[in-house]
Amino acid sequence: MMDTTAVKHTVLQIAREISQGKELNDSIWEQNLFELGVTSIQYLKLIVAVEEHYDIEFNEDTFDFNDYPTLESIASFILLKASHASLN
Question: Which residue numbers delimit the Carrier domain (predicted)?
Answer without folding.
Answer: 2-82
